Automatic annotation (TrEMBL):
InterPro entries: AAA+_ATPase, ABC_transporter-like_ATP-bd, ABC_transporter-like_CS, BCAA_Transport_ATP-bd_LivF, P-loop_NTPase. Pfam families: ABC_tran. The lineage of its organism: Bacteria, Bacillati, Actinomycetota, Acidimicrobiia, Acidimicrobiales. It comes from the Bacteria. Belongs to the ABC transporter superfamily. This is ABC transporter related. One of its GO terms (biological process) is L-amino acid transport. Keywords: Amino-acid transport, ATP-binding, Nucleotide-binding, Transport.
Length: 241
C-alpha cells in the first residue's frame, strides 16, 4: 500500500513567544480529500504553512509520501510533489502566462510550454487572456489561475488555504467542482476552509479549535457527530450547509 501523502505527529508551532498549535497529529492518505475546518484564528493557515516548510515547527514531525521532511526546506518539499496555494495564490501584477511559468520553473523550457498547454486544456477560460495581468481578473478567475499555477508542477498533493476567501457562493461552487475534478484525476487534496460547502468533496475532516485537533476522521463520522456539528456550526462566521 502507498504510504500516506502526509503524516503529522505531535506538531507544534508558535508566532514569537506565543504557541498557536499544540500536538497536531493526523494523516492524509494517498488519494484522500481532507478538509481542515476551523473558525478564524483556529490555526489553519499556520498549520498549512508549517507543513509546507514556510513556518518553523515547535516540536513534532512531518512526513511527506513516507519521507521525513523535518529538516527539508520548502523548495525541496515541493520537489517531492507538494504544491501550496496560499489565500492570495497568485502574483497579481504578472500576466496569467507569467504566473503559470512561475508555477513550472523547475521544468525545462520545452516541457514548460507543453505543460502550459495541458493546464490550459483544464482551464480553457484562461487561454484567451494569457497576456493579461492576473490582477485584472475576477476573484473566481484569479483562484483558477492560482490552481492552474499549482498544477504546472504536476503535484501529487495540493494544499490550499481558504480557496473560498472573497468569493461569491456561486463561484465557490465552481471552485469546488474544479477541485472535485482534480481529486478524481488522482490528486490528493488538503484544503483549509471555514466554508462548510467544501464538505461535499471531502473524504476526511480535521476540525481545529484553539490550535488543537478537536476531531479527525472520515466525513461520515463528522456528519454523524451531533455534538460536534452543533458546536461547530454554531460558531460565528461559519456558513450553514
Ligand atoms: N503573522 C502573525 N504574527 C503573530 N501571530 C499570528 C500571525 N499570524 C497568525 N497569528 C496567530 O496565530 C493564531 C492562528 O492564526 P491562523 O492565521 O493560523 O488561523 P486561521 O485558522 O488560519 O484563521 P483565519 O481563518 O482567520 O485565517 C492566531 O492566534 C493568530 O493571531
Amino acid at each position: 500500500m502507498a504510504p500516506p501523502a502526509l503524516t503529522i505527529d505531535g506538531l507544534g508551532a508558535a508566532w514569537g513567544p506565543v504557541q498557536v498549535l499544540w500536538d497536531i497529529t493526523f494523516s492524509v492518505e494517498d488519494g484522500a480529500a481532507t478538509l481542515v475546518l476551523g473558525a478564524n484564528g483556529a490555526g489553519k493557515s499556520t498549520l498549512l504553512a508549517t507543513l509546507v516548510g514556510l513556518h518553523e515547527t515547535r516540536g513534532g514531525s512531518v512526513s511527506l509520501f513516507g519521507e521525513s521532511v523535518d529538516r527539508v526546506p520548502a523548495h525541496r518539499r515541493a520537489r517531492l510533489g507538494v504544491a501550496f496555494m496560499s489565500e492570495q495564490g497568485i502574483f497579481p501584477s504578472l500576466s496569467i502566462r507569467e504566473n503559470l511559468v512561475l508555477g513550472g520553473l523547475r521544468l525545462r523550457q520545452r516541457e514548460r510550454a507543453a505543460r502550459i498547454d495541458e493546464v490550459l486544456a483544464m482551464f480553457p477560460e484562461l487561454a484567451d487572456r494569457l497576456g493579461e495581468p492576473a490582477g485584472s481578473l475576477s476573484g473566481g478567475q484569479r483562484k483558477m489561475v492560482g490552481i492552474a499555477k499549482c498544477l504546472m508542477a504536476a503535484p501529487r498533493l495540493l494544499i490550499m488555504d481558504e480557496p473560498s476567501a472573497g468569493l461569491a457562493p456561486r463561484i465557490v461552487n465552481e471552485v469546488i467542482d474544479r477541485l472535485r475534478d482534480l481529486h478524481a484525476q488522482g490528486i490528493t487534496l488538503l484544503v483549509a476552509e471555514q466554508n462548510v460547502s467544501f464538505l461535499e468533496l471531502a473524504t476526511d475532516v480535521i476540525v481545529l479549535e484553539g490550535g488543537r485537533v478537536r476531531f479527525s476522521g472520515p466525513r461520515d463520522a463528522f456528519e454523524h457527530d451531533n455534538q460536534l456539528r452543533e458546536a461547530f456550526f454554531g460558531l460565528e462566521g461559519l456558513q450553514e450547509l
